[in-house]
Amino acid sequence: MNRKHHIERLDSTKEFDICIIGGGATGLGIAVDAASRGCKTVLLEKHDFAKGTSSRSTKLVHGGVRYLQQGNIKLVMEALKERGLLKKNAPHLVKNQSFVIPNYKWWENSFYGIGLKVYDWMAGSLGLGPSQFLTKEETLALAPNLDQDGLRGGVLYYDGQFDDARLAIHLAMTAADHGAVIVNYMSVEGLMKIEGRVCGVIAEDNVEGKNYEIKAKAVINATGIFSDSIAKMDNKNSEPLISHSQGIHLVFDKEFLLSDTAIMIPRTDDGRVLFAVPWHNKTIVGTTDTPVASASEEPIALEEEIEFVMQHIHRYLRKDPSYNDIRSVFAGLRPLVKSHSKITSAISRDHHIAVSDSELISITGGKWTTYRKMAEDVMEIAVHKAGINDKECVTKNLHIHGYKENNSYKAPLYYYGTDEDAITGLIKNDNSLSELIHPSLPYIKAEIVWAVRNEMCITVEDALSRRTRALMLDAKAAIESAPLVASMMAKEMGKDDYWLKEQINIFNAVAKNYLPKY
User: Fold this and answer.
1) Residues 290 and 324 both lie in one domain
2) Is the confidence at residue 68, as pLDDT, over 70?
């Protein structure tokens, strides 16, 4: 996936069938759906793929146990089906994850156990494993770091886990594999219209500074938390559709979980669930649900949110992590569809599709697990608007780029799938590329070279936040590795010392917000 090549194809295409604005989970899913139907497809992302919400999740592919508690049966059943399809189509990225719900009150075992049996039943043949009632001893064997005081037992259940940014990159590559034009750092500055109908977009290449007029039969707004800004571009009087909710996560060393089983705390003071999940040899704990007034490209965790997560996790762990133990803090915004509820945790995660008077198609809401179904739903409208109704969706059985079965999820490069062979090939040509970029991070130099050459990695932040997950695993180590990574990228891209120093400074300005504050 070479950016220069995709820019050349953008230049040479007179008109596309489908133009997608936004390169997060939803936009990339639409690009895969459109391209695999045989549509001439272009996707434009203002920043980097999955720069926003789509790289800041809890890393779970799940039906949503708490949505079952809320009675949203439709969403849960849809999500469970999509969870199964995603695991089938991307086995190199989605794996089974076991969870324990600890029970400290007499009624919890039956209450949660019966609920999870319903969860199993709803998953049907796409289930990942049956839930089980656990004794106190069995619970502690699976989650040895749980506080034993008052523990009565637990319930074991299964959901999916993945690397969100890595899946986003592989969706971009899947769309490209099927002929789509995919370009990051390309901002849409306006909409083109003929007789009041949207017929394309005006875009600017933020790398080269060139402007483009891109014609398309259908234009889709899939910009997530920024959906309202594109809608305003279409009609300055459009009503806002999005309520923004911030969720944060704290990252600790693995010693605070001590096993490969995650912990799910079913109810916190604000009514949300709290997860402690093993991920890339670390432990992720989150999340919060804090209403925020507006969208931000780099949301920052609030002190009260960090304190909230720390207080709740201390109630359940035998060994309490301190602020000094936090390796990284990251925040993300949810693009929730507006409702009359003042509590964002009660707002539905269902997706919403709107078609404006000018026929701009906007999709909002939803969640990572249901990205494929969201894409299918919006494309059924788009192909009609574009006058290409004979194109049928094929993504239920479409392998995602890198597809590889029988993976060892403890292997260092497993998340590349079949691309792992090409990365090891780089090392065969230059053994120095097998070296780690930092002693506290699991990533090697070959991954940086591969990202620049094949994954449209343009900035140091792209490399350390999304092509690798260094910034989320250990912010301090990521900052320390930035000069090496910048130097490698400058060599690959033919950049000068000014670019190198500027990139380090820009990355450090972003990364400081991931450092724990105590």
Assistant:
1) yes
2) no
